[in-house]
Amino acid sequence: MTDKPNIRSLSLDELTLFFIKKGEKSFRAKQVYEWLWKKNARNFDEMTNLSKDLRKFLDDNFSIPHIKIKHFQRSTDGTIKNAVTLPDNLLVESVLIPTETRTTACVSSQVGCSLDCKFCATARLKRMRNLTPDEIVDQVVEADLQSKQYYGHPLSNIVFMGMGEPLLNYDNVMKAIEKITSEKALGMAARRITVSTSGIPKMIRKMADENPKVKLAVSLHSAIDDIRNQIMPVNKRQGGLKELLSALQYWYKKTKSRITFEYLVFKNINDDQKSIKALVNFAKQVPSKVNLIEYNPIDNNDTYQQAEDIVLEQYREALKKAGIVSTVRRSRGKDIDAACGQLAGKMIRE
Ligand code: SAH
Questions:
Q1: Is 313 among the residues known to form the active site?
Q2: Active site residue: 93, 135, 142, 165, which one?
Q3: Quick count: other Cβ atoms within 10 Å of Cβ 99?
Q4: Of 201, 227, 95, 204, whose CA–CA distance to 155 is shortest?
Q5: Is the pLDDT of residue 332 over 90?
Q6: Architecture, CATH, for domain 7-61
């Protein structure tokens, strides 16, 4: 780590102001910004359209920290998991999931997580810190490079389903999304980005107001308060399902963007008719679809177990009858612990 300030924490406006104060032309700021965000420069010497003096001046005053891929593993199904070292040596993980037509990067927003969802491996780490906007963007940059190298096409989608709760690191996640979508930086389409949340009503409303044009996914897992409180203690703290639903209706009113509910079906927890009815009732109240995701046990004596397939079918039937689209998402990258909820970083610090 260096003590010099991180130049990538400055916005284009801040960078411009800095150059003007120094008596430089403002277009220099644009050039530097492009090097940093479009051309992914790792040091000032690469910025060949700047004078040597200016490059040295920048180098004396700023650093360009960058994440490092510590190692990566490739699953038999092509999924890639990256262990990512941050500039302060903490570790997070990111995953790259290929299908025939697209590649999705699953990125982390925090080191660890404070939410304590009982079935999630990341919860065991507790939260250590928020990722900065550039640490989030870097995961996308690296994923794009890997996608081109290993699958022969650029990255097409991004999901905030790695480690952490993105809406509890809202400002940095929004700044990262700004960089990912801005034509002056990565220029990806916002509709290809999904922010996945355990459901923080206040922040869902805030995001609806600001409307960054991204998709919203909500990890629901139960539409019955008593059960959801038990498996996701955040439910109780945030005012329960009623508050969540009202925030989601507000989201739809503001954005007209349909919500995806992520839903795990556990043996003896939510595999009964009452749970199915509750989900149908809940999902009916806001334009939405449901992803039934396969559970990945996080250790050998896990109290949580995937329900029988027949129960998934019952869920699908009931949703279909109510006119709600659902899909069953089988796990990817299981053999390398890269599947949903398995991201924990075997060691959190190098
Ligand atoms: N905090 C955010 C994003 C990270 S979790 C959120 O809650 O949405 C990404 C998804 O993985 C969530 O839907 C989460 O509920 C799910 N998940 C967590 N642990 C899992 C596990 N062991 N098996 C399958 N999915 C899991």
A1: no
A2: 93
A3: 12
A4: 95
A5: no
A6: Orthogonal Bundle (1.10)
